[in-house]
Amino acid sequence: MRRHEITDRQWTVVAPLLSGKATDCGVTAKDNRLFFNAVVWLMRTGVPWADLPERFGKPNSVCRRFRRLAQKGVWEALFEALKAPELEWVMLDSTILRAHQHSAGQKKAPPPLNAWVVAGAE
After folding, report:
1. 121/109 Cα distance (integer angstroms)
2. Spatial distance between the Cα atoms of 32 and 51, rounded to a whole number of angstroms
3. Distance CA 8, CA 30 (A)
């Protein structure tokens, strides 16, 4: 298995939710898992569609199928099915989060020199 591909266990959850199976009406996809791995690879690497490796097929074909599934609402259904129920609400305690050194705010500037002179004159 390659770096950005899903495992067999993950595929058993995802496979029934994608269209293009032999039991679906219409055209049967050549390889649903290859298509899904292409989408996962693109999302994890963040590259444009045109930079899709050749092993996944033509970038334009993968892009068109991705868009068709998005218009049908397949991706939303997939995300809902894969959502972990225990992660519906996540709370982060600030005691375990480290702030960046520059997040403390602006340094306080000393008062201008003439303010010291005026204050001392009184």
Report:
1. 22
2. 20
3. 18
Task: Read off the tokens for 106.
Answer: 């602006």
Q: Which amino acid is at 30?
A: K
| In the predicted structure, residue 25 carries a pLDDT above the cut 60 | no
Cβ atoms within 10 Å of 55's Cβ, excluding its own:
10
pLDDT tens figures, 69-116:
899 898 888 888 777 666 666 666 666 666 676 666 666 777 666 655
Residues 6+ apart with CB under 8 A from 66: 39
> How do the residues of the chain divide into helix, strand and coil, expressed in percent and rounded to 5?
55, 0, 45
List the structure tokens of 90. Answer: 């996540």
> How far apart are alpha carbons 70 and 64 in whole angstroms?
10
Alpha-carbon distance of 115 to 30, in angstroms, equals: 79
